[in-house]
Amino acid sequence: MKTGRKKFGTTDTERSIIDTVRLASRKVRGGRVPTLRSIADKLNALGHVTKSGGQFRPQTIAAIQKRIADGEFRTCARRIRKTQLTSGDFRSQDQIESDLFDLCYADCKRPQKKSDLYFLYCILLGTGLRASELCDLQWRDVDVDKRMVNVRRGKGSKQRSIIISRVTAGLFVSRGINSKAARDPVFTNSAGGKLSYDALHDRGKKIAAIIGDPRWHLHCMRHTFATRLYNYKKDINFVADQLGHSSIETTRIYAKTLNSEKLEQMDAMDSLGKSPTESSASPDSTSKPEKNP
């Protein structure tokens, strides 16, 4: 390395290149491993250039992948884990009722499209499943009699079973579960095949447009499910089992969030009038305060 030259992977642009290669190199679930050429084309399309100012080639990508595997790029930006949710990360009861009303009376050209979006919203709210888990969900995984949903391939390829409410079970029945083939996907594309991850997120964007909240996303319904469940049960272990969390510390985020919400609600009461401390006279006061009628 030349004197005075920064090590590759230290500038913002270089970290962006490394992160792009990392993400693009991952095998897409149900797909093939991306080729070096496709990764190089992606970097070139994003406008990145090599140190010499040229375009990326497969050989360059292979060299970067090797250095990533060797652990040379530990300075890359890492995902920051949240310790507490904000009000925009989950839906309140009033927002849920408003969302369902908007979805029910949405102006869609195809009634089936409106029905699909309404069903998606309700299943997200009633199960707390991840987007990838929804894509993999088949009718054989749903047992409406036992009110159980089997997640065959969750995060980390872990399997779990979750309990659903009577209302959520009724939603599956209303979609004709008894007339479906066991291995048919619950969420399908226009051709009747399995809905892709990207297509599911496209539906999420349509829901956000209908309810008029650009902050809404699929994962916020998972947060909503968790906060509602913990608020009702106050059982952190049960919530962790339902969500499929490997660490209970991840689930504690929802407990912290609800505690913070309660503090904000108590603080909001101050705006209704003076607090007891403010309304009472101090011991040194010479005048007696008048009682409220």
Textual characterization of the structure:
The protein is mostly helical and 293 residues long. Strands 1-2-3 form a three-stranded antiparallel β-sheet. Helix 9 packs antiparallel against helix 10 and helix 10 packs across helix 11.
CATH class of the largest domain: Mainly Alpha
Q: Spatial order of the strands in the main sheet? A: 1-2-3
What name does CATH use for the topology of the largest domain? hpI Integrase, Chain A
- Give me the CATH architecture of the largest domain, please: Orthogonal Bundle
Q: Compute the CA-based radius of gyration.
A: 26 Å
User: Which whole number gives the mean pLDDT?
Assistant: 80
Number of helices: 12
Entry summary:
The protein has 293 residues and is mainly alpha-helical. Helix content is 49%, strand content 3%.
What attributes does this structure have?
293 residues; mainly alpha; hpI Integrase, Chain A; 12 helices; 3 strands; 49% helix; 3% strand
Layout of helices and strands:
Layout: H1 12-25, H2 36-45, H3 58-69, H4 93-104, H5 111-127, H6 131-136, E1 142-143, E2 148-151, E3 160-163, H7 166-174, H8 197-211, H9 218-233, H10 236-243, H11 248-268, H12 276-279
Antiparallel strand pairs: 1-2, 2-3
